[in-house]
Amino acid sequence: MMRWIYWLGWLTFRSGFRTLFGLRVRGLERLIRTGPVLVVSNHQSFLDPPLIGGLYRDEMHFLARKTLFRGIFKWIYRQWNAVPVDQEKPDMSSLKTIIRTLKEGHRVLVFPEGARTMDGSLGEAQPGVGLIAVKAAVPIQPIRIRGAREALPRGSGRIRLERIELHIGEPIILTPDDLKQLRGKDGYQEAADRLMQAISEL
What we know:
- The protein is of the alpha/beta class and about 200 residues long.
- The chain is about 40% helix and about 15% strand.
- It is built from eight helices and seven strands; from the N terminus they run αββαβαβαβαβαβαα.
- The protein has helices at about 5-20, 50-55, 70-80, 90-105, 125-135, 150, 175-180, 185-200; strands at about 25, 35-40, 60-65, 80-85, 105-110, 140-145, 165-170.
- Strands 1-7-6-2-5-3-4 form a seven-stranded mixed sheet.
- Strand 3, helix 3 (about 70-80) and strand 4 (about 80-85) form a beta-alpha-beta unit.
- The model has no long low-confidence stretch (mean pLDDT about 90).
- Keywords: Acyltransferase, Transferase.
């Protein structure tokens, strides 16, 4: 059962996205609905985590900037399954938490770019997502977000009523050979680049 605070956020955001932004979802039949899955997406806006979380009827885990965990929001973000990450001084602890969460059978959302886009273009993938993909060895679901930057640009606190679309790609399964070859710094970067390429093609 979803915790009530997660359910309340899920219901509020899901209804709001369809009402305010006319949310459209393409490729919903490709969505992996059961079992552990690493969901990877481009990052356009603060709206992105609930946008993708609303696709599912059970809980999702995701990374969130450490500075957001203050006051009452520290409790709220914990209830929303957010894992704090220090973008200024990244370490392995958050990555290990995500890998463990995936191996325990949960769904996790990660943004390979690491930060929201400034101009709408796709950024470079960070090797950390490649490490997660290889170490966790679970199915990967690429998703591309369009319109969220226009609805809530980085650096802006004003929401605009723009159309938002989610494009869901075919699941990616790393083969045993992939898991052997994509090791070390270069291998993790190659894995991350593959995932970013899959997102870019949606």
